[in-house]
Amino acid sequence: MNPIEPGYADVPLLATAEPATDEPQFLGEGPTWDPIRERLLWVDIMAGAVHVGRLHDDGRVEPQSRIQTPDSAGAVAVAADGALVVAGTSRLHYVSGDGAISSGRELVTGEGRRFNDGKPDPAGRFVVGTLGPGDELLLRVEAGVDEPTTVIDDDLTLSNGLAWSADGRRFYSADTGSSRIFVRSYDPATGATGPRTVFAALSHGHPDGMTIDADDHVWVAVWGGGCVLRFAPDGRLVGRVDVPAPHTTCPVFAGPELDTLVVTTATEHLTQAQRDAHPLSGRVFTARPGVRGIPPLLWGGR
């Protein structure tokens, strides 16, 4: 049974994703392609786990190792030397090339609040948002031991997916609770942003993680929609990839040719009836939609 929202049934179908792993995650998120070591990373947020795997030519993902963080793992980003930054509950965790883990200072406060999705910006700074009970934040964290931090947004319902255009001058961000995707100008050198406007608003489901393709189209996973939607740079909805799991969480283009779309999913908030109807939920999926991604942005290190 395909859980695609009826509201998107008329959107051109580009591909149907197939399961790439066997082990489900409760809240699988944040797939990240490491182009230097040709490995795929993704997180299981509430388990505090960073998974590392190999993407095979047939679309299967072979899990190879797991990194356990001190608390949650909202997102992971990789540096050129292989070091990782992980968005923990209220701090960033740093994983060196030899696997040693250290933690930064507390950047998030408030009962029930934690870091959520995050990505490097074009200069390698880490941009990360929060999830919680009130007005949520989107922050830019500079390199350095003191972790200088700039607030980009402070009025979000749930900060989620992030993406930059190929030239780094357009910045997209998802606000899941309001079902809106924002866009604004971005200065790749300084991180300065222009006025925020609504790029697109979803009529069904909620926007989650996102990525960009080589044509500067925005790909957005739809939580509660069982699909990934493709938007043109002017905000027109032009395509979809179906995923046989209702809670589709995040896409990324991966592989040496950046032509495989990797999609994470979750079992969180599914009823038993929904799990029975969609038994592949929580797995990693892959598809070949006939489009390539752009080289992934790398974290600049601490």
Protein model, in words:
The protein is mainly β. 2% of the residues lie in helices and 46% in strands. The protein has one helix at residues 272-277, and strands at 13-16, 18-19, 28-34, 39-44, 49-55, 61-68, 76-78, 84-87, 92-95, 101-103, 114-120, 126-131, 136-141, 149-156, 159-164, 170-175, 180-185, 197-201, 206-212, 218-223, 227-231, 237-242, 248-254, 260-265, 285-287. The strands form six sheets. The chain has a five-stranded mixed beta sheet, with no helix packed on it. A hairpin with a 5-residue loop joins β5 and β6. The longest helix is centred in the C-terminal third of the chain and has 6 residues, at 272-277.
Provide a compact summary of the structure:
The protein is an all-beta fold and 302 residues long. It is built from one helix and 25 strands.
Instruction: Count the E strands.
Output: 25
- List the total number of helices: 1
Mean pLDDT: 96
Helix/sheet category:
mainly beta
| Low-pLDDT sequence parts | none
Protein topology:
Elements: E1 13-16, E2 18-19, E3 28-34, E4 39-44, E5 49-55, E6 61-68, E7 76-78, E8 84-87, E9 92-95, E10 101-103, E11 114-120, E12 126-131, E13 136-141, E14 149-156, E15 159-164, E16 170-175, E17 180-185, E18 197-201, E19 206-212, E20 218-223, E21 227-231, E22 237-242, E23 248-254, E24 260-265, H1 272-277, E25 285-287
Parallel strand pairs: 1-22
Antiparallel strand pairs: 2-25, 3-4, 4-5, 5-6, 7-8, 8-9, 9-10, 11-12, 12-13, 13-14, 15-16, 16-17, 17-18, 19-20, 20-21, 21-22, 23-24, 24-25
Q: Notable features of this structure?
A:
mainly beta; 302 residues; five-stranded mixed sheet; 1 helix; four-stranded antiparallel sheet
